[in-house]
Design a protein that fits this description.
mainly alpha
């Protein structure tokens, strides 16, 4: 029971951090960059770990951390998407968007529930990639 409460609290904290980032991206890049770095820290690694490793490594990483690995993967996909919006370097932006697309596709293909927001995120990522 304690583990389940911890996981629910952890997921709620991730959700709140992401909501804070969504509000700041596009209006206050400096503040959002700090919040984004903190959000990666909440996942237990920095952005380079998530960008440099294959999806199988990330899945194993989240599986080892908690039973809600799909939610963590979705969260990371969203975080990478919003982080990409703050980037001026198109190479890094593309790398983030491609990783986010790979993660959200994994989520959509493996989730047992229909999540409209994840499909909307897929569309946003695709549009950003087209715009590069």
């Amino acid at each position: 029971m304690l583990r389940k409460d911890y996981l629910l609290g952890f997921l709620n904290d991730l959700f709140e951090a992401l909501q804070k980032i969504k509000k700041k991206v596009g209006t206050n890049i400096e503040d959002s960059s700090t919040d984004i770095a903190n959000a990666y820290d909440m996942l237990g690694k920095d952005v380079n770990f998530f960008l440099d490793n294959e999806i199988d490594v990330l899945i194993d990483f989240f599986n080892a951390k908690n039973n809600e690995h799909l939610e963590s993967i979705k969260y990371l996909a969203e975080l990478l998407y919003y982080d990409s919006l703050t980037q001026n370097n198109n190479v890094l932006k593309e790398k983030m968007l491609l990783k986010a697309r790979e993660l959200i596709n994994y989520f959509n293909n493996n989730s047992t529930t229909y999540d409209l927001s994840s499909f909307q995120l897929s569309e946003k990522i695709a549009q950003q990639l087209v715009n590069l």
